[in-house]
Amino acid sequence: MARSSSGIIVATLTVAALAGVGFLAVQAEAAPDHPATHASGQTAGKAKDGDQGKDKATGATGQEQGKAPNAIPENSGTGLRVVYGLAQKRVWLVGSDGKATRTFEVAPSTVSPPPGSYAVTSRAPTVTGSDGIPIEHVVRFHRDAAGVVFGFSAAVDGSSPKPDATKKTGGIREQPADGRAMWEFAVNNTPVVVVP
């Protein structure tokens, strides 16, 4: 009789252990993918305080995006490119395989480039921004007919711009880590696609 009780106890524990493993497997399957890693080893942008309920990689809520993390905007070209979403105030660094390696929010200035396809025209390690703030990792991609230059950059001190509405400037400010990633990714002639 004691053996039968032991056998039942062992069988019960085995069933409980298998159920626990099955539960963990279901949880792992339902968990979101890990953020994409850029060639530099840095991961896609993380959610900031106050962004609860938003996708940590793209910043969009499920209702806004309805797509997987790092979802690249539709009609944004193919292959290796930088994608800048005007309405989302977000950039995607897209590898030659067509997958986003990094995405992050940006702070635009007073003028935005028109949607279209461009290419990196020039770069500068450090300059002074139109707002008088020292900036680094400047990646320029367009100059409009009025002479406004559009490009990505990061303030050395990590500050966000406070654009003067009376000035027409086209700087697109990034956080320093994102600026470094852009600098490493977007060499001269790298395609830049601006979407609405």
From TrEMBL:
Which region ranges are annotated with the description Disordered?
A: 34-75
Signal peptide residues on this chain, from the entry's feature table: 1-30
This protein's source sits in the domain of life called Bacteria
What keywords would UniProt list here? Signal
In this chain, composition skew of type Basic and acidic residues spans 46-57
- Keyword Signal appears in the UniProt entry: yes
Is Signal there in the keyword field?
Answer: yes
Q: What is this protein's name?
A: L,D-transpeptidase
What organism does the UniProt record list as the source? Streptomyces hesseae
